[in-house]
Amino acid sequence: MQRLREKGLNNVSKLIISLAACVSAGMIGSIFTSGSISTWYTVLQKPAFSPPNWVYAPVWFLLYILMGISAFLVWRVGFKQFHVREGLVIFLVQLILNTFWSFAFFGLKSTIAGLLVIVPLWTAILLTIINFYRISKTASFLLIPYILWVSFATALNFSIYLLNP
Q1: DSSP string, 74-137
Q2: Which of 25, 73, 86, 96 could serve as 136's disulfide partner, Cβ 3.0–4.6 Å?
Q3: Tens-digit pLDDT profile for residues 18-36
């Protein structure tokens, strides 16, 4: 019984850390985003499918929560397993790229820099989904909305690049 409680506490800690890491990445990215949304981003020409600015924060918050839960589901399987370590390293790479995209696009105010980051980001998300699938199908499925949103963001980034030479 005591061992079961310890494992439960360990899983609670892993869940909190996983969620905190993902939400923190989003908060770091928002540092670069917030200053540019009402200035630089507003004056850019955008395609007709560009959503209103207020949509981004709740969507990203939900995605970061799903990402955190996904990472937790893989981590709780056991970090001693090679596939778990490999999957979490790839997950960490995509999380860093995610944050770096905000810096590249909004911080540098560069649509081309955004494209140069979002393509490897999309690839890292796909690799994470594939790797997570071997460990936890649920964990991989939780990342499907994320890759769909980043696919949309890639199309949006590319369209903004084309409209603002």
Answers
A1: HHTT-TTSHHHHHHHHHHHHHHHHHHHHHIIIIITT-HHHHHHHHHHHHHHHHHHHHHHHHH-H
A2: 73
A3: 999 999 999 999 999 988 9
What's the rounded mean pLDDT across residues 65-92? Answer: 95
Give the tokens for residue 18.
């996983």
What is the model's pLDDT at position 85? 94
Q: What is the CATH number of domain 2-163?
A: 1.20.1260.100
Identity of residue 47: P
* Cβ atoms within 10 Å, residue 47: 12
The residue type at 51: P
Distance between first and last Cα of the chain: 64
Rounded CA-CA distance 60/12 in Å is 23
Give residue limits of the domains in the chain: 2-163
CA atoms within 13 A on the CB side of 66: 17
